[in-house]
Amino acid sequence: MTIAISCGEPAGIGPEIAARAWEALGREIPMLWIGDPRHLPEATAWEEIDDASQAASVCATALPVLARDFGPPAVPGQPDPAHAPGVIDAIREGVDLVRAGACTALCTAPIHKAALIDGANFAYPGHTEYLAALAGVDDVVMMLACEALRVVPATIHIPLARVPEALTPELLEATIRITRDALIRDFGIASPRIAVAGLNPHAGEDGKMGGEEIAMIAPLMDRLCDEGFDLRGPMSADTMFHAAARAGYDAAVCMYHDQALIPIKTIDFAGGVNVTLGLPFIRTSPDHGTAFGIAGKGLADPSSMIAALRMAADMAQACGPR
Ligand SMILES: NC(=O)C1=CN([C@@H]2O[C@H](COP(=O)(O)OP(=O)(O)OC[C@H]3O[C@@H](n4cnc5c(N)ncnc54)[C@H](O)[C@@H]3O)[C@@H](O)[C@H]2O)C=CC1
Ligand SMILES: NCC(=O)COP(=O)(O)O
Question: Helix %, strand %, coil % for the chain, to 5?
Fold first, then answer.
């Protein structure tokens, strides 16, 4: 039942929120941290382990650490490209542990994408795509979830100008299918109701403000509804996130990153969790980034990390490791 935590960017708040999350949950949820222990806050009670199987017994008294040497020390707020290989390896090691059955889930602390590209030619825009590559799967889906809302961006880390061309019926169909399967399997919703956002203002206003809704989104939705999917939309993105609208669906599939992430980070920044759907293992993460401005100052709120660990543990409990 041990959850592997990858360290994330050492100059960000990742190490401190992991340490704080262990303080909050270490007696309840076995976990281990993969990274360079010199990057943890000085006061952290940590203990080196050689093997994931030792984590459960250590975790009640110290944060179990699979210690790796990243080379230079970390300066809060100043990412060092020299850490990039270590950061990437920690994610890969976490995946290996989960896939080998030594851990039940992976919870990733935030990475600074630019430092990984500069330091190691990291070929992926984020964890989501890297994890898909490690797992050898083509279609994965990013979901951000909090008590009040679940959102899924169909396109993720691409420039806004490229969204319309990237938004193919195939991509949207895979996104909706994976989302529905996960709502049933991981979130225990027998008949998921999925809202689908339009791409354009007012969901295209009958074609007067853009054509993607009529040409692509609505026909795909009709086809999936004929198969038994409960889909609502295409909805105007500006009016689908207020409380009464949210009561009408279990998840919202959105067309691009900010359409999905702005509402959830506005509603519940502290409680939001990023969960990757469609992987053959469980991966969660806090919804926020590296927060360089507050790193090393003891100001970071660990709530989202705690929520991410809880969600990973709940998913493992409900469905078992994949
Ligand atoms: N899963 C991941 O690896 C993610 C990584 N990132 C990366 O993080 C870097 C910084 O991104 P930003 O857009 O600045 O977002 P950010 O989430 O790091 O920071 C946004 C604002 O929220 C505050 N904040 C964030 N987390 C906080 C916490 N736990 N407690 C208190 N305040 C907190 C920050 O101080 C800042 O004011 C980028 O390189 C981005 O790619 C961003 C999101 C997720
Ligand atoms: N904006 C969300 C984000 O950057 C998380 O991406 P990932 O690293 O989880 O793929």
Answer: 45, 20, 40
Give pLDDT tens digits for 219-249.
999 999 999 999 999 999 999 999 999 999 9
Predicted TM-score (pTM) of the model is 0.96
The rounded distance, in Å, linking the Cα atoms of 15 and 108 is 11
Residue 255's SS3 state is coil
Question: For residue 14, how far is its CA from the centre of ligand 2 (angstroms)?
Answer: 14
SS3 83: helix
| CATH numbers and ranges of domains, the chain | 1-137+279-322 (3.40.718.10), 142-276 (3.40.718.10)
Question: 63-67 and 31-35: which strand pairing?
Answer: parallel
Residue nearest to ligand 1 atom 39, measured at CA: 112
Closest by Cα among 84, 73, 107, 40 to 309:
107
User: Which strands make up the sheet holding 141-146, listed edge to edge?
Assistant: 46-48, 63-67, 31-35, 3-6, 105-108, 282-286, 273-277, 141-146, 149-153, 251-254, 193-197, 230-235
Measured CA to CA, the distance from residue 260 to residue 280 in angstroms comes to 24
Q: What is the mean pLDDT of residues 154-159?
A: 96
Number of H helices, E strands in the chain: 12, 12
Pocket of ligand 1 contains residue 129 by CB under 6 Å: no
Residue 88, pLDDT above cutoff 60: yes
Is ligand 2 within 6 A of the CB of residue 274?
A: yes
